[in-house]
Amino acid sequence: MPTLAAADPQLGGGAAPGIGFAISSNSVRNVVRQLVSTGQVTHSDRAAIGTDLRTDPEGGARVVAVSAGGPAARAGIRAGDLLVTIDAKATPTVDDVAGVLATMRPGRRVFVGLVTDSGARRSVTIELGEIKSS
Asked: Which Gene3D superfamilies would you find in this protein's record (predicted)?
């Protein structure tokens, strides 16, 4: 479902031809079903690991904060760790982390490859949480 068209400042803020954003029909169906039955969105069905990440210039997604009690905290991930893989898929940027998680559902268990701030490599298993609906 189309949701937004990009604006091009060089065209006076008009639509940028060929650039738009959309959400999947499955996501729309899920949200509409919840709205019809309860009047609000009660769950997102979107996977989350419970971290605040920043793309590291050297490659990977640097953990800058971990949600207390969240999936990453339960797995032993700490601020300063560098996420380099999720489920054996490379995550050289925060966008890559989001892309990998977008293909997964809450409750799934995945391996996460990390480099600690001391340079040690390790792997942990995370049971994916869910992005809170708002």
From this structure: 2.30.42.10
Q: Where in the chain is the domain with CATH 2.30.42.10?
A: 47-130
pTM for the full model? 0.72
What phi and psi values does residue 22 have, to the nearest 5 degrees? -150, 165
Give pLDDT tens digits for 59-92: 899 999 999 999 999 999 999 999 999 999 999 9
Q: List, in order, residues 6 or more apart from 85 with CB less than 8 Å away.
A: 91, 111, 112, 113
Structure tokens at 74: 């339960």
Question: In this structure, which topology does domain 47-130 adopt according to CATH?
Answer: Pdz3 Domain (2.30.42)
Helix (H, G, I), strand (E, B) or coil at 24: coil
